[in-house]
Amino acid sequence: MAFEFDWVDAFTGDVFGGNGCAVVHGGAGLPDEVCTAYVRETSLVECTFTGPSDVADIRVRYFLASREIPFAGHPTVATVVAMRRRGMIADGRLVLETGAGLVPVEVLGDRVTMTQIAPEFGEVVDAGLVAAVGGMQASDIIHPPQVVSTGLPFCITVLKDRATLEGVKFNEDALAAYADALGHKSTDIMEPYWVCLEGATERGNTFSRLLLAPPSPPEDPFTGSATGCMAAYLWAHGLIVSPIFTAEQGHGMGRPGQAQVEVLGPREAITGVKVSGQGALVMSGEVYLG
C-alpha cells in the first residue's frame, strides 16, 4: 500500500538541524511490526503514523525502532508542520489524540506550540545508579535524579556543568541494572535525560543530551517530551528562577535544536508545560508499506 509521507526536521528552522521525523499520513492502522521496521529503515529515532480520531482533530501514533510509545515531542512538531505544509490544517488550534491523552497544539506557520500534560513526579533514583549509565560519578550530579512524565517518563538528571554533560558515555550494562532497580526491562524504559543549567549558545538557558540503546541511533538530537519533563522538574525543585526559558540540545552532534518552554502554574501545582519549536520540511513522497 502506498502512503504519503513528509520528513521534517523539528526544533529548528533549517534543514539538517534539530531532530528528524518521517510522518506517514494515514498510516495509524498499520501493524506495529511494520511501523517499527519503517523506523529502522529510516535510521531515525522516531516516526509518526496518523489517522482519523473520534475524540480529537487527528490521531497520532509514535514509534521507536523497537516499540510504540505513548507520546513524543519532536514528532509532534514534525507531524503538525507536515500537515500544515500540505494544507490539511490552518494556523490556529487543534487537538491530537495520543497514547498519553489529548494534546492541545497551537500552530502559526512552521512554529508549533504543544501543551504537555501536568507532570507526574515519580521515583527518586539513586544518583550512583544513574551516574553509571552515563559513565560518570555520583558527585557529577547536583540534585537527586527523579523520574518525571509529561506524557513519557524520563529520569531527569542535572549535571554540574557543560563539560560533564559533554563527557557522558552510554553504558548499556548499567542501563540494565538501572532498569531492573526501577522494575522494568531495559527494552521498555527510556534512558536518563542529562541536563546542565547553561545553554549551548548565549540564547540558551539549559543544554541537554539523551543517549540511546540499540536498536535506536546512539543519541537523540532533540527530545521534546523530555524537555517538558525537565522543565517541570527544574521549576518544581527551584532550580530555575523563571518558568519561561530556552532549552537547547543537539549542538554536539552538529544538529542544533532549540525550544521555547513555559511551565504553567506555581512550583507546587504545575498544570502543564508548553514546548514550542519550529520545523523544516526536508522531503516528501510516497512510501510502500505492505
Question: Any descriptors?
Answer:
single chain, 290 residues, alpha+beta, Diaminopimelate Epimerase, Chain A, domain 1, 6 helices, 17 strands
In short:
By secondary structure, this protein is of the alpha+beta class. The chain has helices at 32-42, 73-85, 127-133, 162-166, 172-181, 224-236, and strands at residues 2-10, 19-24, 47-51, 58-63, 68-69, 92-98, 101-108, 111-116, 120-124, 146-149, 153-158, 193-196, 206-211, 219-220, 244-249, 257-264, 272-288. 20% of the residues lie in helices and 37% in strands.
Q: What is the CATH class name of the largest domain?
A: Alpha Beta
Contiguous runs where pLDDT drops below 50 for at least 5 residues = none
From the alpha-carbon coordinates, what is the Rg to the nearest angstrom? Answer: 18 Å
Q: What about the largest sheet?
A: 8 strands, mixed, barrel
What is the count of helical runs?
6
Query: Which bin fits the share of residues in helices?
Result: 10-25%
Q: What is the fold-level CATH name, i.e. the topology of the largest domain?
A: Diaminopimelate Epimerase, Chain A, domain 1
Whole-Å distance between the termini? 5 Å
Average pLDDT works out at: 96
What structural class do the secondary elements suggest? alpha+beta
Q: Estimate the global geometry from the Cα principal axes.
A: globular
Kindly report the spatial arrangement of strands forming the biggest sheet: 1-2-3-4-6-7-8-17
